[in-house]
């Protein structure tokens, strides 16, 4: 896999910023959840295609509705993107639901549950975790 050039990284950042602004302020579709954020943008080096990873702070159903709303507005979003970002070619945007934040929250919750249950087992044994090394009470 080819490493991103500095130019491509800069273009990704500009497109991400522009898409975030467009979704937040320009789109009036009621299906699009107000807590939608653009997490990552990957523009191909030829500037023809663009994958935008979006995260929705809400339920799974709200995330699906938001994705449908964004997919139906792809043409409008591309037109606004062409006005905001001056590129040789305006990329064709495709939206992908990014679930990495939810996955991270779920994993953190599972780790917290395991550590809490391990602490509870230590208290049941009478260890109390860190004890007196002499064995005295």
Question: What does this entry look like structurally?
Answer:
There is one protein chain. Strand 1 (about 35-45) and strand 2 (about 50-55) form a beta hairpin. The chain is built from four helices and three strands, in the order αββααβα. Helix 1 packs across helix 3. The model has no long low-confidence stretch (mean pLDDT about 85). The chain has about 140 residues and is α+β, with helices and mostly antiparallel strands. It is elongated. It has two domains: about 5-100, K homology (KH) domain (GMP Synthetase, Chain A, domain 3, 2-Layer Sandwich); about 100-135, no CATH class. The N and C termini lie far apart (about 60 Å). The longest helix is centred in the C-terminal third of the chain and has 26 residues, at about 100-125.
């Amino acid at each position: 896999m080819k490493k991103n050039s500095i130019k491509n990284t800069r273009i990704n950042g500009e497109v991400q910023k522009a898409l975030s602004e467009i979704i937040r302020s320009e789109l009036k579709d009621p299906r699009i959840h107000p807590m939608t954020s653009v997490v990552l943008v990957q523009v191909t080096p030829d500037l023809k295609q663009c994958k935008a990873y979006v995260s929705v702070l809400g339920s799974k159903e709200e995330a699906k509705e938001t994705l449908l709303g964004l997919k139906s507005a792809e043409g409008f979003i591309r037109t606004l993107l062409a006005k905001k970002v001056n590129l040789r070619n305006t990329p064709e945007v495709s939206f992908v639901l990014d679930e990495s934040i939810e996955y991270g929250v779920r994993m953190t919750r599972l780790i917290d549950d395991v550590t809490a249950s391990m602490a509870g087992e230590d208290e049941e044994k009478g260890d109390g975790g860190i004890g007196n090394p002499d064995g005295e009470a």
